[in-house]
Design goal:
The protein is 68% helix and 0% strand. The protein is mainly α and 104 residues long.
């Protein structure tokens, strides 16, 4: 769908592929039940950027996607416990996600 592609903005192809897989898995595994596709896509992009240490804000992604920043962050928080089913072991092992979601 064209809207999804626009959201990727300047992300490279590999990052786009990872985000697409994250979104698909999140839906297939019922992790994002009740979220509309554009929200899932935007959250998957943000989650992937966090996991790869790509500096892209939820606000920037949300502005392009038409999704509230808070909604993106909340959806990512829902995805985090299932990160090992959404991302490859190599990416999870980098540990970048932990700094965003470890409970203080």
């Amino acid at each position: 769908s064209s809207g999804i592609n626009a959201e990727y903005g300047d992300l490279d192809h590999k990052t786009q592929q990872i985000a697409t897989t994250v979104a698909r898995q999140a839906v297939d595994l019922d992790i994002v039940a009740g979220r509309v596709p554009v929200t899932v896509a935007a959250a998957a992009i943000y989650f992937t950027c966090q996991a790869l240490a790509i500096d892209k804000s939820a606000k920037d992604i949300g502005d392009v996607a038409g999704v509230a920043e808070a909604t993106i962050k909340q959806t990512c928080k829902t995805m985090y416990p299932s990160r090992e089913r959404l991302l490859t072991p190599e990416i999870v092992a980098k540990g970048h996600l932990n700094q965003f979601y470890t409970m203080r």
